[in-house]
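Dear Dr. H.,

I hope your travels went smoothly. While you were away I took the liberty of generating a structure for the chain from your last submission, since the lab meeting agenda had it listed for discussion. I wanted you to have the full record in hand beforehand rather than looking at slides cold. The sequence, exactly as received, is reproduced here:
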Amino acid sequence: MEEKEKVYGIGLDAEGRCEHYHTELDVVALRCGKCRKYYACYKCHDQLEDHAFVPSDAGQDADTPVLCCSCNSKLTYIQYQQGKCVFCGHDFNPKCALHHDIYFAG
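The corresponding predicted structure, in token form, is as follows:
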């Protein structure tokens, strides 16, 4: 059995929802470009780390800056842009687009 990817955050539930974002659709963790850890959100990251969240490069097709916490699958930026997990079908929160520039560069 594959080991579950570690997700960081404050007040996490089993599907990666944190104290800041906790709707049914908030099941995505995003990787900081600096520390390379998957966080439930940038707010959790900035409270727990000694550096600000650094966006991942959206142009690297082979890279996996997104983690679906519903099925523990790593996704490329292109896969994430589908709006739901390409592996388990869980819908993602469309309001995350409001924070696109925080999480993704390029």
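Two observations you may find useful: The longest helix spans residues 42-48. The chain is about 15% helix and 15% strand.

With kind regards,
E. W.
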